[in-house]
Amino acid sequence: MNKTELIDALKEIAKPYIQDEAAFEHVTEETNFIDDLKINSANLVDIVLDTEDKFDITIEDDEMEQMLTVKGAMQVITSKLNA
Amino acid sequence: MVGNDIIDLQLANKESNWQRPRFLEKLFTEQEQDFIRTAPNPTAAVWTLWSQKESAYKIIVRLEKRRFYAPKKLTTTVPFDLSASSSSNVGQVTFASYNFLTKSKITDAYIHTTAQLNDYQSLMSDSFQLAQSNCAYQRTTTRFKLLQAYATKNSLSLDNLSIQKDEWKVPHLYYKNQRQTVQISMAHHGYFGGYVLQKF
């Protein structure tokens, strides 16, 4: 899975929880789920759980720490898939 | 240092399904999960504990100038009785070497929690219903309520007061474009808003 595909997959996961449609049109690696997409911090855990389900991985607590941004999420997924 | 968090319970129940598998395990310590599962009102327990963590987290961001998503590293002590409606509940949140004291106002419609570092000093806080739930309205109204309360208390003109956020999204109160030492925190969710102020 290349970067673009990974970003698209994360967009699909984040979609039900976003509160800023305009920002959602321009998601990049630098996008912050909470600041940019206005995702509720309680919903960030849903993104973590949906990511686990979609990629069939288990995200540990210390890995979850960096899942505030698209980039952070991409790093976690990539390291899991390459493990 | 102060932080606060507010949860519109009707909206929270719509936005989140805390009963989904692994949800509680990701956010709460085992002790907290036990507390939730045995609480008379588990939904109120979930959101009260969450608002404690969130309000303390806002202070941690100020202290450490970094952001992270590690809800289980903020542990709550949960001695209070959540069955009492519309009551104030005092709690504690611990993170690393920091200790935060929290106070939660729990009603049937919302939960408002204020947090402060170390010890209780006089805080000025309020929570209220909002006529609209869109982001611009929530933000404007909550800011206005805070500024109005501060202006009245200090006999200042509202025109000279403003709120600006720094690079860490931490809000500061300004009087005639001078940053004031008073610490502020604002929160809104759905049809409810709240704030807290503390002088230091």
Number of strands of chain B: 10
The coarse silhouette of chain A is: globular
Helix content, binned percent of chain B: 25-40%
Percent of residues of chain A in beta strands? under 5%
Would you identify the regions of chain A where 5 or more consecutive residues have pLDDT less than 50?
none
Biggest sheet layout of chain A: none
Throw out a few tags for this protein.
heterodimer, A: 83 residues, 5 helices, 0% strand, B: alpha+beta
Mind sketching the topology for me?
The complex is a heterodimer of chains A (83) and B (200).
Chain A: H1 3-14, H2 21-24, H3 44-55, H4 61-64, H5 70-82
Chain B: E1 2-8, H1 9-15, H2 23-27, H3 30-38, H4 42-64, E2 75-77, E3 87-95, E4 98-106, E5 110-117, E6 123-129, H5 135-153, E7 161-165, E8 171-175, E9 178-189, E10 192-198
Antiparallel strand pairs in B: 1-5, 2-3, 3-4, 4-5, 6-10, 7-8, 8-9, 9-10
Q: How would you sum up this structure, described in words?
A:
The complex is a heterodimer of chains A (83) and B (200). By secondary structure, chain A is mostly helical. Chain A contains 5 helices and no strands. Chain B starts with a strand and ends with a strand. Chain B has helices at 9-15, 23-27, 30-38, 42-64, 135-153, and strands at residues 2-8, 75-77, 87-95, 98-106, 110-117, 123-129, 161-165, 171-175, 178-189, 192-198. The model of chain B has no long low-confidence stretch (mean pLDDT 92). Chain B is of the alpha+beta class. In chain B, helix 3 packs antiparallel against helix 4. The chains are: A mainly alpha (83), B alpha+beta (200). The A-B interface holds A 17, 19, 35, 38, 40-46, 48-49, 52, 61-62, 64-68 and B 12, 15-16, 20-23, 26-27, 50, 54, 67-72, 135, 169, 189.
